[in-house]
Write a structure and sequence with these properties.
Structural class: alpha+beta
CATH class: Alpha Beta
Helix content: 25-40%
CATH superfamily: Gcn5-related N-acetyltransferase (GNAT)
Shape: globular
Order of helices and strands: HEHHHEEEHEHEE
Strand order of the largest sheet: 1-2-3-4-5-7-6
Number of helices: 6
Largest sheet: 7 strands, mixed
Number of domains: 1
Length: 173
């Protein structure tokens, strides 16, 4: 058992937990700007309604022993009926000082269980081709590369390729 197993908890945020979500999301986009499509400026002045709309998807947050958010992972289910078996993983972040502690594993486990309950059979994500650590993390958890979007993101004049990865989930009856 790692320290993470006893010192951190992971749970889905409720609609009224805007401050916990706002706190970890703003930390994420400010401390790791290259890892997100959104920028700090996109979110710093967002209305409560904009924050609530993001919470409408499944937002899972890791909390430390003093109940401060230290990581997050979001899941949204595709809406068209022929695509409802697919879930999009986004907004993945763990505070830099806590990486390697198992928090990301716990977040992904919680999201995967929730996805299966929704009938999702496949998780999908896009990750910066430059984020080798994230690509290795996803590969360790059974994600495979499905393709690449050249210049999927633009940061000023800088083009960033995105790697598309997928993972099949066991079918639940």
């Amino acid at each position: 058992m790692t320290a993470c197993d006893t010192d951190f908890s992971v749970r889905r945020l409720c609609a009224d937990e805007l401050e916990a979500y706002r706190s970890i999301r703003l930390e994420a986009v400010s401390s790791e700007p290259a890892a997100f499509a959104s920028t700090l400026n996109d979110w710093i002045g967002a209305s409560d309604e904009q924050w609530r709309s993001r919470l409408a998807s499944a937002v899972f947050v890791a909390f430390d022993q003093v109940h401060q958010p230290v990581g997050m992972m979001e899941l949204s289910q595709r809406l068209p009926s022929k695509m409802r078996h697919r879930g999009l993983l986004a907004g993945v972040y763990v505070r830099k000082s806590l990486r390697g502690s198992g928090i990301a594993d716990k977040l992904l486990d919680a999201v995967s269980i929730h996805a299966q309950r929704l009938g999702i059979l496949q998780l999908e994500l896009a990750v910066s081709a430059a984020n080798r650590a994230a690509i290795r993390f996803y590969a360790r958890h059974g994600f495979t590369v499905a393709g690449k979007i050249s210049e999927g993101l633009r940061d000023g004049n800088r083009a960033i390729d995105e790697i598309i990865m997928t993972r099949r989930l066991p079918h639940r009856h």
